[in-house]
């Protein structure tokens, strides 16, 4: 049981580091970070960013390869992210003006993050 807790804690730390790196990377690409780790009854979104009138909902995955990162965002995860984005948008006064996009950002060992815009 202690090993499982340690493994879970280490995964949580890796995930938080990957999300911080992803947010920095997006800022450097001209995005404004609106929220990190947005949670609601419908699900969780790692990063919500904005560029102009585009709201971008980003799922961050720390994996050893790009393909593993993309494959880790399953259909059920996509449904949860979309549902959570609907909740977030419902709370925004200017939501009617925003376009939406769902991205994946893969954080890979010893490499720059890889951004997959409009991934799903």
UniProtKB/TrEMBL annotation:
GO terms for molecular function: nucleic acid binding. Pfam families: UPF0102. Belongs to the UPF0102 family. NCBIfam families: PRK12497.1-5. This is UPF0102 protein FF124_00465. It comes from Martelella lutilitoris.
């Amino acid at each position: 049981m202690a090993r499982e807790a340690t493994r879970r804690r280490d995964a949580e730390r890796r995930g938080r580091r990957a999300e911080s790196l992803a947010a920095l990377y997006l800022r450097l690409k001209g995005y404004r970070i609106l929220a990190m780790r947005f949670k609601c009854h419908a699900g969780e979104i790692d990063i919500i960013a904005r560029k102009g009138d585009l709201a971008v909902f980003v799922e961050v995955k720390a994996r050893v390869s790009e393909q593993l990162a993309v494959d880790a965002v399953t259909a059920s995860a996509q449904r949860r992210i979309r549902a959570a984005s609907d909740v977030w948008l419902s709370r925004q006064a200017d939501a009617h003006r925003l376009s939406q996009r769902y991205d994946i950002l893969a954080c890979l060992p010893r490499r720059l993050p890889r951004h997959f815009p409009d991934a799903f």
